[in-house]
């Protein structure tokens, strides 16, 4: 049984560790995305430095690597305990944030966590996504929208009667993602955070 769980954790972590942003930016634009823009390997930085189309491809792949492990675990291994879901979800997220292929550096984990919760709780995940879209539209800050979205997820689950293990998983997910945004938080407080759209000259 211990070997079974070690294998599940390992596979989930490895899938989460695949640095799609790095692979796309190096393969398409022949650049090291970690040395460009914000240095992040996620979709936002890829979109800025390589192009919107490739940022969207990165977003889709990062989302899928959150969705696939929990989908396999739930549907094909027929194991749906709260502890198991927590373990698989966090192993995948931590793989993205601390990738073994990038010397334990990685992205923020927003798209990957969206993939996880689109399977576990699709309606709350879509509501949280709408908070992200609204926040980015009003403020022009991807980072702020991301943090508001992930922090809203536990409350949305609570208000919608979500299972305790889902609320707990979402709380830990929000904490991990906000921690990875600590530099963004500092820049937001100093008024130095980079906006998604450049201001138009009047």
What characteristic shape results from the CA principal axes?
A: globular
| Number of continuous helical runs | 10
Give the oligomeric state of the chains in this entry, treating copies of one chain as homo and distinct chains as hetero: single chain
Major sheet characteristics = none
Structural class estimated from helices and strands: mainly alpha
In terms of DSSP E residues, the strand content is under 5%
The average pLDDT is 92
Distance between the termini: 65 Å
Radius of gyration: 17 Å
Q: What is the domain tally? A: 1
What is the helix/strand order? HHHHHHHHHH
Number of strands: 0
User: Helical content, roughly?
Assistant: over 70%
Q: Which residue ranges are poorly predicted, with pLDDT under 50 across at least 5 consecutive positions? A: none
Write a brief caption for the model:
This protein has 202 residues and is mostly helical.
List keywords for this structure.
single chain; 202 residues; mainly alpha; 0% strand
3D structure, described in words:
This protein is an all-alpha fold and 202 residues long. The protein has one domain. Helices cover 72% and strands 0% of the residues. It contains 10 helices and no strands. The chain is globular, with a radius of gyration of 17 Å. 43% of the residues are buried. The mean pLDDT is 92.
